[in-house]
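Z., the sequence and structure:
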Amino acid sequence: MCGIAGFCDYNDDLSDEAVFWHALAKRMGNRLKHRGPNDSGTYVSSHAAFAHTRLAVVDIYGGKQPMTSVIDGLHYTIVYNGELYNTDELRNELTDLGYRFETKSDTEVLLKCYIEYGFDCPKKLNGIFAFAVDDERRSCCYMCRDRFGIKPLFYSIENERLVFASEIKALFEYPGINPIIDRQGLCEIFGLGPARTSGVGVFKDISELKPGYFAVFDKNGFSSKQYYKLKSYKHPHSYEESVKNVKYLVEDAVTRQLVCDVTLCTFLSGGLDSSIITSIASEKYKNKGKKLSTYSFDIAGNEKYFKPELDKTLVKNVVELCDTNHQYLQCNNINLADNLCHAAIAKDLPGMADIDSSLLYFCHLVKKNHVVALSGECADEIFGGHPWFHNKEAFEGHCFPWSPDLSVRTNLLIPEIAHELNIENYVNMRYEESIAEVPILEGENQEEKRRREISYLNIRWFMSTLLDRKDRTSMANGLEVRVPFADHRIVQYVFNIPWSYKCHNGIVKGLLRDAAKDRLPEDILMRQKSPYPKTHDPAYEIIVRQRLANVMADSEQPIHKFVSSRAVKELLKEKPGYGKPWFGQFMAGPQLMAYLLQINYWLRKYEIEIKL
């Protein structure tokens, strides 16, 4: 895992002022040092300047970047953030085609895969990736991002020059790219946040390379093309065959993602998804004479205010079953609140409030002992674990099912701002765009068609939000977190499995539970979903309530430009309680106050200029 940044211009010769461009690229890379604390490098050619910061995971000594290969006298140079999980197969394939390798790194395999297959190379890849290649043969910069956007990549066009980076903060080092927010950005923050429209960087003139896309920048400008999208087809297998295939795909994904040359662990909540991953990983480790390390997380006070299923007991059961080295980590309310600001910096945007800040804090603790972790995210979005896969409101609603009531947000805005932004129309536009993208399966009845829509929305929106959260909070600490359930083979296969299979016998995620029957005991298999990790201690709500009150009492704070003091005072007067979620399952009153705190800090820290 790494951070990448750079800029390209194929109508100008950068070599004339190579020292200056080298320094600028290095400055951009330095803003990403947290993503790659082990090494860094820069590169300047006639038309491109690249920077790379490296978190060494595979081939510690041989995987330095930027990496250049020379074929037939032509130079190809790559900067790459990610991991390939089919490195060995690709290396063998390329070796048979005559390529020779000087390192054991997946970076060299990826670069030579691009040299051989050109713009079609991402179709060959199983992994998580965002990369750029300065291609002397085609006189272009080629950029590409993995199928579901697990690794980030943002860009801007400044004076006809492409500027790109893993995180937005690095783009602001380039002269002329400034933190400006316009109407669209405000609609993203107040209407869709903490989700974000694919391709939209929120800041004015900053874009995101969409998941499943590659882009080419040359003397004619910038163009992008989709190389991957979900497909709809009639599922060809019986229930028993589907269980068998899911079991194979999950085990294969976890096994592939265990490959690394550094210390590795798993996140273990005691729930179904993380327990499956831990069971597979611990078995593979035992076969090599090793013992897997695991971590579970909790918020101080939860044992008093929230007891869903005695999580620690279930974690203990899995730890004993899998024989792992386990650590229980805890975050107190002050750390949870203090890290709201750090989480906004990690993301360059307001995020999932304390759901982000808790993970940021825990990743900081895990990094003390480990460099790579595996996590159970994405199973709920893929296998139908969220309540909106099941409830009537989601089927009858014409909205994103995790955020059905926009009034909770819009009622906080100054009336003039609310009128100017017209957030309801903006959000509806984004919803309609997404529904239009859903791949249709001829012959489906209305109920199954709607289930397919909800599934697609979850993968393209809610899952992307969680993956973004995972990348920023982990990489802010130089920790790589891998997500086996987001393997594109699993996502595509399960997308077309009938709901009667996914929810077999009326049991939520029944298919996945059956696929894990020979691995886990009944109490783990049938555990109901619970917040992980989320606070239920009223003391936290008191902290954020007081901090927001202090912000509202200071007329110089930037949030006053947008939110109504009267409306926020009403929010602050409400009795302690978690209320109705305004985003997802668990973001209610305390998280709304925390989100406002993040917005205010973000506006102030980034010195954002508003242009409506």
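The radius of gyration is 24 Å. The first strand starts at residue 2 and ends at 8.

Let me know what you think.
H.
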